[in-house]
Amino acid sequence: AIKSGDHVVFSHAAGAPQEIHRALVRHKEDYSGVEIFHLICLGSGDYMAPEMEGHFRHCAAFVGANSRRAVAEDRADFIPCFFFEVPGFFRRKLWPVDVAVIHVSPPDLMGNCSFGVSCDYTKPAAEAARIVIAEMNDQMPYIGGDNFIHVSQIDYIVPCSN
């Protein structure tokens, strides 16, 4: 579902889709020029490693411990902005979203999955995306509010439990 040259948005922090991160890195040779927007990556960030250059390029609105070196070595980009501005990037098409890679709870009886702990820019990114790939995690908390995506709006589901 992710193709070379795509603009991909990952849900971030504790809601990052770690299984999909690892799969992309394992299959790096299948990709060229994929741009990944990820506000803050708390996982390994392996897709930012020097050997990933040409395959993936990280674009961050927050430079954390695992992205600092990639930004300093010009293998990643930094967009200085305020956190509250990020959802508008996607709503106003300032950052194109070909694929949103999200992390959700299993659906409730109505078919709604919760974005759980990633109730920030993830929903606007998913709404703007051409394709939505979700890690569906039975350990993701089901959190209410304006924090849902209907399972019918998800194109690909990767089950996980972590």
UniProtKB/TrEMBL annotation:
<dbReference type="InterPro" id="IPR003702">
    <property type="entry name" value="ActCoA_hydro_N"/>
</dbReference>
<dbReference type="InterPro" id="IPR037171">
    <property type="entry name" value="NagB/RpiA_transferase-like"/>
</dbReference>
<dbReference type="GO" id="GO:0008775">
    <property type="term" value="F:acetate CoA-transferase activity"/>
</dbReference>
<protein>
    <recommendedName>
        <fullName>Acetyl-CoA hydrolase/transferase N-terminal domain-containing protein</fullName>
    </recommendedName>
</protein>
<feature type="domain" description="Acetyl-CoA hydrolase/transferase N-terminal">
    <location>
        <begin position="2"/>
        <end position="158"/>
    </location>
</feature>
<dbReference type="Pfam" id="PF02550">
    <property type="entry name" value="AcetylCoA_hydro"/>
</dbReference>
<dbReference type="InterPro" id="IPR046433">
    <property type="entry name" value="ActCoA_hydro"/>
</dbReference>
<dbReference type="GO" id="GO:0006083">
    <property type="term" value="P:acetate metabolic process"/>
</dbReference>
